[in-house]
Amino acid sequence: MVRPAFLSCRELRGVKEQTKGNGKPMQPTRQVRKVGPAPDYPPEEGCCLRGNDYSPVAVIVILRWRREETPPDIENLVRVAVESGAALAGTLQTENIGLEKVICNVVANPNIRFLIVCGPESPGHLVGDAIVALAKNGTDERRRIIGTKAPTPYLFNLPPEHVRRFRQQVTVIDLVDEGSPEVLRQAVWSCYQEEPTKFRHHELCDPGSYPEPPLSGKITWRVAHPEREPNSEEERSRADILRELMSRVRKAVEQKKRGGGDSPSPNPEGTE
Question: What is the pLDDT of residues 191-218, one digit of tens each?
């Protein structure tokens, strides 16, 4: 069991307690609840930097280029985020498997209560739109993010519990299509303030860790190509019938090669 600790916001920033001009100690700062992250934190590897585990904010920088063509200004935003006090900061390319990895890492650290999304939107994947829609609307029964324009926003490789926790644990700060290091610094700084601090239309301060233990685990890789998945229950039903047919055919061929018994009918309905 992870024991909670209570730290001041000044301690979280690594700043020593200052004294007033008369040499007397300053008044104690507001205490916030903090816990250690999961033992395997962050469970998913990726192009990210790890900062202060007790910070209340993580940063996603949208990457619309191929990984090996990442522009220097995008790499700089990741560094600025961590140097400004983020717990994690990294780039994100896709609205499905990439986003699933982000969710795994966030719910493994209950101290993360804000997720800043910045950088130029990806015209192909619409990653920023998908994250904002997930926070607002969740997913439907097919695990598709509701209300997004992203082409394949399916979260097949996560337990529903992880998606629910993500939505309950973090507030998404939408800086999509923005890439100013100064704005990002201000956003991160605002998240770990002791008192509510105005940033755009948000009132931000560190609320302390989420009051449930961290969720651990990696994505299942049950679906490696979400873009190939059926788009409707009718398509899924036809795909299931086809897979059953192919399975019967394979078994029939294998049995024939072994020279044993009657071959089963490859028709899943049992008709000619």
Answer: 999 999 999 999 999 999 999 999 999 9
CA distance linking residue 135 with residue 172, whole number of Å: 7
The pTM of the whole model exceeds 0.85:
no
The three-state DSSP-derived secondary structure of the chain is CCCCEEEEHHHHCCCCCCECCCCCECCCCCEEEECCCCCCCCCCCCCEEECCCCCCEEEEEECCCCHHHCCHHHHHHHHHHHHCCCCEEEEECCCCHHHHHHHHHHHCCCCCCEEEEEECCCCCCCHHHHHHHHHHHCECCCCEECCCCCCCCECCCCCHHHHHHHHHHCEEEEEECCCCHHHHHHHHHHHCCCCCEEECCEEECCCCCCCCCCCCCCCCCCCCCHHHCCCCHHHHHHHHHHHHHHHHHHHHHHHHHHCCCCCCCCCCCCCC
Classify residue 169 as exposed, middle or buried by CB count within 10 Å of its CB (0-12, 13-18, 19+).
buried
Q: pLDDT of 149-169, one tens digit each?
A: 999 999 999 999 999 999 999
Q: How far apart are CA 207 and CA 110, in angstroms?
A: 11
Tokens at 174, concatenated? 């939408």
Determine phi and psi for 226, rounding to 5 degrees. -55, -30
Q: Indicate the residue type of 82.
A: V
